[in-house]
Amino acid sequence: MFLASVLIILSLLHGYVGFRLIAPFSVSGNFLYIYWGVITLLAMAPLSGIVLRVKGVENYSTDLLLWVGYTSLGLFSLAFIIFFIRDIGWLLGLAIGKLFIFMNGEKGTPSTFSVDRRQFILMAVNWGIVGTTGTLGAVGLFQARKLPKVFRRKIKLQRLPEKLSGLSIVQISDLHVGPTIKLDYVQKVVEQVNVLEPDLIFFTGDMVDGSVDYLSRDVEPLRQLKAKYGKYFVTGNHEYYSGAEHWEAKAQELGLKNLRNEHEILKIRGESIAIAGITDLMAHQVLKSHRSDPRKALAGIPEAMATLMLAHQPGSASQVGDLKIDLMLCGHTHGGQYYPFNLAVARAHPYIAGLYRQGNMQVYVNQGTGYWGPPLRLGIPSEITLIELISGKSSVA
Predict the structure, then answer these.
(1) Residue 328, pLDDT above cutoff 90
(2) Which domain holds residue 7?
(3) 3-class DSSP state for residue 180?
(4) Residues forming beta bridges with residue 355, ordered by sequence position
C-alpha cells in the first residue's frame, strides 16, 4: 500500500511537470516516446533505488541510481510548485477576463493574442521556469553539501544546579549516511564538533540509510568524536529500516552510549544530572520490543534531579504526560529541508525547528546535520547545535 501510494505521487508529480514542459511544442513520433520514457525513468528512479536497498542490493550502482532519482525528485518538486503557481495565475487571469466581458458586454471584450503569440509567451515562460528550477536546484545542492551551520543556544533550566551552569552540549541529528552522504561529509562534521570542545555529545537518531555491512567505513569517523563527560545515541526511524539492533551495537562500538528507554546519572563538578533516551516513536511497528517508553526511561531518577531526554521525533513530547523532564532534544523534521515544503512539514509536526516550551518542559528540535532524499536545502541550513545550559538559580544571562 505504501509503495503504491509513493508510486502514484511520483507519477502525478513527474507527469504534471512533464505535460507542462512539453505543452507549447508540437512534438510527435519517436521524440515524444523518448521524452516520456525519460520522464518515466526519472519518476521510477528514487523508488527503484529504495526498493533495491531494502532488498539488500547496496553498491555503487544503487547509490548512483538514488543520486539521480533524488536529484530529479528535488528538481521536479520545485518545478511542480512553480508550474502550479503559474497555472493558478493563468486560471485567475482567464476568470477575470470572463468577468470583465460579463460586466461590460461585447464592447468590453479584451484583445486576444494570436495562437502563435500565445505559444511564444508560453514557451518563454516554460524556459524561464526551467532556468529558475535549475538555479534553485544548484543553490540547494550547494547549501545541502556545505558544512552544517553551528547554532549556538543558551537554555535555562530551573532545576539545573548552579555548579552545572555553562555545561556545553553538542547535538547532531539526522546525518543520514547512505547513498549520497559518505565518509568525507561525516569526517567534516566530526571535525566541526570536536573544535567546539563540548562536555557532552548527543546524537538524536537517523545516523544512517543502509546496513552496517555496507556503511561501516563511512561512519568510522564518528569514533573520533570527543566529549569530556560522554557521548550518547538514540535510534531514529531510519535505523529501523536498516537493522536497528545492528546499528545500536555499532553505535556502542563507535563509542556512543545507546539509550534504549533507559538513563544514566552523571556526576559532574560534584553535582548530578540525568541523561535519558527513548527509542523512535514508531519503533514498535518494526520491533515490538523497542516500543518507545519515556516512563521506563525515567524510572529511578530522583524527583528533584535535572533531567535531559533524547528522542528522535518531536512527536515524542506528546508521550511524556506529567513526567518531569527539563529539556527534550529531538530531530527528525530537518526543519522542512527546503521551501515551500517546510510549510507541509510544519502542519505534520507540532515542533519543527528551534526551542519550544511544553508546560515545564522545553523541547529543542535540531533541523538535521545532513539531509534525506533530494540533496537540497533552501533557506534551511544543516545544523550542529551547541547548547549551553544555564541554571535557573544562576545570575548568568
Answers:
(1) yes
(2) 2-143
(3) coil
(4) 364
383 three-state secondary structure: strand
What span, in angstroms and rounded, lies between the C-alpha atoms of 217 and 247? 13
Alpha helix locations (H) across 23-113?
30-54, 60-104
Q: Encode pLDDT of 233-277 as tens digits.
A: 999 999 999 999 999 999 999 999 999 999 999 999 999 999 999
> Where is the domain boundary, 112, 143, 174?
143
Distant-in-sequence, close-in-space partners of 108: CB < 8 Å, separation ≥ 6: 100, 101
Nearest to 305 by CA among 133, 148, 159: 159
Distinct helix (H) and strand (E) counts, the chain: 9, 12
338: CB partners within 8 A, 6+ apart:
74, 140, 374, 376, 377, 378, 379, 380
325 and 285, same structural domain? Answer: yes
Burial of 25 (0-12, 13-18, 19+ CB in 10 A): middle
Contacts of range 17-22, beta carbons closer than 8 Å, 24 or more positions apart: 17/76, 17/79, 17/80, 17/83, 20/79, 20/83, 20/87, 20/126, 21/79, 21/126, 21/130
CA distance 3 to 351: 27
Could you give the C-alpha distances from 380 to 139, 170, 241, 370, in angstroms and in order? 12, 19, 26, 11
Answer yes or no: are the C-beta atoms of 93 and 112 closer than 8 Å: no
Calpha distance 54→338 (Å, rounded): 26
DSSP H/E element including 169: strand 168-172
pLDDT digits (tens, 9 = 90+) for 66-83: 999 999 999 999 999 999
Q: Are residues 328 and 180 in the same domain?
A: yes
Question: Are 153 and 138 contained in the same domain?
Answer: no
Number of domain units in the chain:
2
DSSP classification of residue 321: T
Terminal-residue alpha carbon distance, the chain: 53
Q: So what's the pLDDT on residue 126?
A: 82
Of 143, 177, 210, which one is at a domain's C-terminal end?
143
Asked if residue 34 is part of any domain, the answer here is: yes
pLDDT in tens, 84-143: 998 898 788 778 877 777 777 655 555 555 666 767 777 788 888 889 999 999 999 999
